[in-house]
Amino acid sequence: MEDDGGERSSFVISLIENRAKEFLGNETCKSTLKLHFLRLKYDTNLSHIKIQKTLLHFYDPVVIIVPPNKLAPEGMVGVSELVDRFYASVKKVVMARGCFDDTKGAMLIKNLAAREPSALGLDTYYKQYYLCLASASAAIKWIEAEKGVIITSHSLAVTFNGSFDHMNIDTTSVHNLEIVEPLHSALWGTSSKKRSLFHMLKTTKTIGGTRLLRANLLQPLKDIETINTRLDCLDELMSNEQLFFGLSQVLRKFPKETDRVLCHFCFKPKKITNEVLGADDAKKSQMLISSIILLKTALDALPLLSKVLKDAQCFILANVYKSVCENEKYADIRKRIGEVIDEDVLHALVPFIARTQQYFAVKAGIDGLLDIARRSFCDTSEAIHNLANKYREEYKLPNLKLPFNNRRGFYFSIPRKDIQGKLPSKFIQVVKHGNNVHCSTLELASLNVRNKSAAGECYVRTEVCLEALVDAIREDILMFTLLAEVLCLLDMIVNSFAHTISTKPVDRYTRPEFTDNGPLAIDAGRHPILESIHSDFVPNSIFISEASNMVIVMGPNMSGKSTYLQQVCLIIILAQIGCYVPAHFATIRVVDLIFTRMGTMDNLESNSSTFMTEMKETAFIMQNVSQRSLIVMDELGRATSSSDGLAIAWSCCEHLLSLNAYTIFATHMENLSKLATIYPNVKILHFYVDIRNSHLDFKFRLNDGPKHVAHYGLLLAEVAGLPSSVIETARSITSRITEKEVNEMEVNCLNHNQIMMAYHAAQRLICLKYSNQKEDAIRQALHLLKESYIDGKL
Ligand SMILES: Nc1ncnc2c1ncn2[C@@H]1O[C@H](COP(=O)(O)OP(=O)(O)OP(=O)(O)O)[C@@H](O)[C@H]1O
To answer: Rounded to the nearest whole angstrom, what is the distance from the C-alpha of residue 683 to the centroid of ligand 1?
Structure first.
């Protein structure tokens, strides 16, 4: 199942893979059927269509199940239509909207899936997969009804797959890492805005650029070549000030909504007649005309972009210059627009100005009826202004204003202080609005009707005049799609990435490097958001490689563990979207999945306790982890008894150690540091805290090895203001417990020589791995070593 982290323009396609053929032919129902439910973005954007085609090709479907076409949101291409266009040979089944029921889908999957329901994460990730589950419900219903079979319980292999060419970050991690929204946003109030990565980078100027940035943060890239082309572009922008400022200036000249208007050209509207326009028709005509004005404004800015990019060197900018700026088709279409549209017409945001621009968009003299409609529009508009003047004088209301909005048309706005007593009865629809009163009169209402009708006529005639031009644009829609995509990408790289880096002191951000199989090494990394809040933020490094694939971070409360974990993930995400990172140096093994498990509150929605939520999240990670994953665990097992917690944390670590994934594990459990004495691929680090006169001084500096900080919990509790009598009692209890523990440890603990012997043996085995020995043999030997160690027979 595929999910993109919450893009709005998404829909569901249910695909049944080729293997279904075998199943459907053989109705014993015992074979395992593999279903793929793809949640796909679709709009007129070229690249999204490409994604769909790739995925559909990949699965080679025999049946595509889609909801009815009318469900496509306004302005979007219906999924059904896309299937017709690109997969005419594939059987298409249209099922009623009611069949796409996510609740039913979740129940069916739980019942039919061969895997443990926890592995699918349905409890925790229900919301994230709701579209997939809805499509599952429809697909299963179709199979059962069409083939007259019943799928037996636990016979389906169901997997949740992410996008193939992007890093996947599950919703819990998106939340934990504060990628889009800050944690506890209610707590931080308005100042919370800058506390998420998205808001930190959201200096984009266009809607498409902002959307692209959000989509990138939710699904960073995986392809090193693409990432590097973005980084090359950033290199050039950072080293060429003139280019950077020139580009930011020029991008402002393009309308903000360039990408959004393209869908207005995708469908041919109904034939316009001279009958009275319905509200929807008028709106569509208005959108189409405003879209042409907007394209004209965008094309006018193109020569300026060309001038700025003339000498650009990097692949992206040079390619934009070659394929967009030098493409003569844009000049041709601009010329065609110029033949019909008045040169002075501009894209405007104020409703009345925008509408007036639209009525007068087509050059005078092209259509006689349009000229008459315009005259009538001008006359009624003038009459409305004269009426307002008349009221100003007659009722002594010099501050009476005549605002306009698309819904009401013209209305009066009068400051309340100007109204002595009551308004004359002539004024109707009186509504208080702040310090003003909004109202109308019968005369104004009647003029508004005439004005609106003249405006409607203007739209009809304008649209008729633009028909040929719209057809020409429709033919070249791919060119405009390219232009829109280019503008979004440039907006993201220039206005977001380059702008963010340029606002930091020189060399604070560096270009990351990438490897396929190498280590994850970050030297002096900083938290991208917190470093601007704490002026004295302490940088920290990390090194994880295949030979040392787990880092256990220890340290007392408040020492900086969670911040460090978040910082590493955010640096990787920044790097994989093609941005510089806040570090002295960074080499990154491309990550395909980030999993985080950080302290959660009770999950009231799924009726789970803190411990249960923790275990479900951990189960989800364990069962979906891949070779190139990054797993970040913060204090696993603290929500249950300390012995069970330690046992779970220990065994989870052992499981993760056997994988190629990289793990960073933060914990308070000092006993966990003993893992390093058995497994040479575990590295222990701790956050240094200075304790003087029973006072904790946090240094936020990461040091090698474990470190015992005695009774830091008590010290912190004292700082938090617990009564001294309570602290004293707690102190005496801990000293007694500690004494007992020390005695027990003396009895049970293996002697130092034995630990060192095991450690050296493990190290030798790892060396063997790099000789020509088979990995399985080494693993088995390690396992035996572990067993003997636990049994004390070493
Ligand atoms: N490197 C750093 N430089 C400066 N301040 C930091 C640094 N790391 C963390 N801090 C500050 O210390 C506070 C506590 O950090 P954090 O929550 O990461 O500690 P923790 O060890 O995870 O605590 P706990 O174990 O109680 O969850 C943060 O809110 C942040 O303000």
So the answer is: 21
d(CA 670, CA 262): 59
Nearest CA to ligand 1 atom 28: 560
For 189-211, letters b (16+ CB in 10 Å) and e give: eeebeebbbbbbbbbbbbbbbbb
Between 38 and 229, the more confident residue is 229
Q: How many angstroms is it from 530 CA to the middle of ligand 1?
A: 10
Assess contact for 173 and 596: CB atoms under 8 A.
yes
Out of 147-161, 421-435, 492-506, 677-691, pick the least confident.
Answer: 147-161
Whole-angstrom distance, CA of residue 462 vs CA of residue 638: 69
CA 642–ligand 1 middle distance (angstroms) = 23
Under CATH, which number does the domain 10-164 receive? Answer: 3.30.420
Query: Counting atoms of ligand 1 from 1, which one is nearest the CA of 540?
Result: 1
pLDDT surpassing 90 at residue 494 = yes
Å from CA of 552 to ligand 1 middle? 16
Ligand 1 atom 8: residue of nearest CA: 560
CATH number of the domain at 241-363+459-502, please?
1.10.1420
Predicted confidence (pLDDT) at residue 152 exceeds the cutoff of 70: yes
| Position 176 pLDDT exceeds 90 | no
Ligand 1 center–CA 117 separation, angstroms: 35
What single-letter DSSP state applies at residue 166?
B
pLDDT the model gives residue 159: 66
The answer to whether the 241-363+459-502 and 368-458 domains have the same CATH topology is yes
Which residue, by CA, sits nearest to atom 15 of ligand 1?
Answer: 560
User: Ligand 1: residues within 6 Å at CB?
Assistant: 534, 537-538, 555, 557-563, 700
The 8-class DSSP code of residue 782 comes to H
Q: What is the pLDDT of residue 604?
A: 47
- Return the structure tokens found at 135: 């499509």
**Under a CB-based contact definition with an 8 Å cutoff, are residues 17 and 61 in contact?**
yes
Cβ partners under 8 Å of residue 696, min gap 6: 556, 558, 689, 690, 712, 715, 716, 719
Percent of the chain with pLDDT over 70: 74
Per-residue pLDDT band for 777 (boundaries 50, 70, 90) equals confident
Residue whose CA is at the smallest distance from ligand 1 atom 4: 537
- Distance (Å, rounded) from C-alpha 289 to C-alpha 283? 10
**pLDDT of 240 over the 50 cut:** yes
Quick one: pLDDT at residue 102? 82
Contacts 24+ apart (CB under 8 A), 294-297: 294/255, 294/257, 294/258, 294/261, 294/347, 295/258, 295/261, 295/333, 295/337, 295/473, 295/480, 296/334, 296/337, 296/341, 296/345, 296/347, 297/253, 297/254, 297/255, 297/346, 297/347
Question: Per residue in 17-66, pLDDT tens?
Answer: 333 333 333 333 333 344 555 544 433 333 344 444 445 555 567 778 88
3-class state of residue 268 by DSSP: coil
Domain assignments of the chain as residue spans, ordered by start: 10-164, 241-363+459-502, 368-458, 513-709
Nearest protein Cα to ligand 1, atom 25: 557
Atom of ligand 1 nearest to the CA of 701: 1
Mutating to test ligand 1, I would choose from 542, 554, 562 the residue with most ligand atoms within 8 A of its C-beta, which is 562
Tell me the per-residue pLDDT of 436-492, one tens digit each, with 9 for 90 and over. Answer: 999 999 999 999 999 988 888 888 888 888 888 888 887 777 788 788 889 999 999
C-alpha to C-alpha distance for 600 and 513, rounded to whole angstroms: 33
CA 72 / ligand 1 centre spacing (Å): 47
Q: Which tokens belong to 185?
A: 């946003």
Distance (Å) from CA 647 to ligand 1 centroid:
26
The CATH number of the domain covering residues in 368-458: 1.10.1420.10
Please give the CATH topology (third level) of the domain spanning 513-709.
Answer: Rossmann fold (3.40.50)
Q: What's the pLDDT at 456? A: 85
- Rounded to the nearest integer, the mean pLDDT of the chain is 78
**What's the gap in Å between 499 CA and the centre of ligand 1?**
28
